[in-house]
Design a protein that fits this description.
Clc chloride channel; 2 domains
């Protein structure tokens, strides 16, 4: 008589396989939550992108009734946005990327909830759309990163992932999925998470994060199609004298990018410190004044500096017959500065690409033997690298946005040179500098809670003069984060 077959439960190899960590229920729960979050972020990014286009078309309709109308409407709405974000929606101000970086560094539950709660994510989208509808020179990519991190964080907490380390993984995955969905560039999302979000705070990039970015990218591709943000750009840069373009664009765009960072960082000392004090005394009136200056720049530039700058950058990089003009790069840079000074919600990614394209167009005149489209592409990526301090992300974004891989080496060399040049003016990248200010504010606030007795004073309150710039306060206390620590 033969023995009966062994059951699965008595098979040690099968038991070992089923008991492997890969099959653990809590791991699958986390995977499913992350993957669901990636789908939600992709859908939110697509909706945000379409709504941003509608908002800017509304502004263009306004311009069709009179180029002078922004002189009246833009200052009023800028002031209202500054007023609306003075209270609980304060975290919606600025690009949103520094908030995400700060929450990766500060594992305090209350701080993370204040920066990444669902009302903050919804308010970020809505108020950015309002700003675009009145011509603000801002982008939607930074806000999409903020929204993505907020959605992932809230979803993780909803399903029980309340541990600080687990929350960090969700925040990192949400931010990476946000940038990938915003530009339809999955590889750039991964590089952004490594270089910008996780790099300075030592968070491990896991396979789950990569999978979340890929799923978000697949959803975006499935709905929007396999398209390049700026279309297919046929440009190359042969070895030889043409590589002078790498040196020129890297140096010029690097200096301009470093200058832009210094201008928007402001600081407690220096020639621009009085601007910080003005903004602290009357943030609403100051924002209205910024709106008026933006409208004046728009009037002088024939309405070319409003919005994200996508159409203008595309015209330059595609070597179109009609371009925004020779002064566009400088004018757009100034428009970006005053829009950011206003303290309203909005990012700097797309506007930075537009400024770089305009500067590259100017540099191309100095290099008549080099294809203009190649110089524009170098300028665009170099300026972005100088502003963000992320040369690898800028390289990947430039290649994916233009569907051009022939210039990978020149673009990378230009981005590295631009980042090194920008560090002469701003050693700390802009997002990290703003995030450091938030960390300093949190630590100062935490010390005040410990040191001040509740019976004698109200702890935990920061004055306008103590709040970080990215959260809306103008003057800054402590050391200047733009200087190396």
């Amino acid at each position: 008589m033969t023995d009966s077959p062994k059951s699965a439960s008595s098979n040690p190899r099968l038991q070992a396989l089923l008991g492997h960590e890969f099959f653990a229920a809590h791991h699958w729960k986390r995977r499913l939550v992350l993957w669901s979050g990636a789908v939600l972020v992709a859908l939110a990014a697509i909706l945000f992108a379409k709504a941003s286009n509608w908002a800017y078309r509304l502004f263009q309709l306004l311009l069709s009734h009179g180029a002078w109308l922004p002189l009246l409407i833009t200052p009023v709405v800028f002031g209202l946005l500054a007023w609306a974000t003075e209270g609980r929606l304060r975290a919606t101000r600025g690009s949103g990327i520094p908030q995400v970086i700060a929450t990766l560094h500060i594992e305090d539950e209350n701080f993370r909830a204040r920066m990444l709660a669902l009302p903050i994510a919804a308010g970020k989208m809505l108020l950015t759309l309002v700003a675009l509808a009145v011509g603000a020179s801002i982008g939607r990519e930074g806000p999409t990163v903020h929204v993505g991190a907020g959605l992932f964080y809230s979803l993780g907490r909803r399903f029980g992932f309340t541990d600080a380390k687990a929350a960090s993984r969700f925040i990192l995955a949400g931010g990476a999925a946000g940038i990938a969905a915003a530009f339809n560039t999955p590889l750039a999302g991964v590089m952004f998470a490594i270089e910008e979000l996780a790099g300075s705070f030592e968070h491990r990039l896991s396979g789950l994060l990569l999978t979340a970015v890929i799923i978000g990218g697949v959803v975006t591709l499935g709905i929007m199609g396999n398209y390049a943000y700026f279309g297919n750009v046929q440009a190359d840069l042969p070895l030889g004298r043409a590589w002078l373009a790498v040196l020129l664009t890297g140096a010029i765009c690097g200096l301009c990018g470093g200058l832009f960072v210094r201008l928007i960082l402001l600081g407690p000392k220096g020639p621009l410190s009085h601007i910080s004090r003005w903004r602290a005394r009357g943030p609403v009136l100051f924002a209205a004044g910024c709106g008026l200056v933006l409208a004046l720049i728009g009037l002088l530039s024939h309405n070319s500096v409003y919005g994200t700058g996508y159409e203008q950058a595309r015209a330059f990089v595609q070597n179109a017959t009609t371009t925004p003009g020779e002064s566009f790069g400088v004018a757009k840079l100034l428009a970006n500065v005053v829009s950011y000074w206003a303290g309203i919600p909005g990012g700097i990614f797309s506007p930075a690409l537009a400024v770089g394209a305009g500067l590259g167009h100017n540099i191309a005149y100095l290099l008549p033997d080099v294809p203009p489209a190649s110089v524009v592409l170098l300028g665009m990526s170099a300026y972005l690298a100088a502003v963000t301090g992320a040369p690898l992300t800028s390289t990947v974004i430039a290649m994916e946005l233009t569907d051009n891989h022939a210039m990978a080496i020149p673009i990378m060399a230009t981005c590295l040179l631009a980042r090194a040049t920008a560090s002469l003016l701003s050693p700390t990248p802009v997002y990290r500098a703003f995030a450091e200010r938030m960390v300093q504010d949190f630590e100062r606030q935490h010390r005040s809670v410990v040191e001040v007795s509740p019976e004698t004073d109200e702890p935990g309150k920061l004055s306008h003069a103590e709040r970080s710039d990215e959260l809306g306060g103008a003057p800054f206390s402590g050391k200047d984060p733009a200087k190396p620590s």
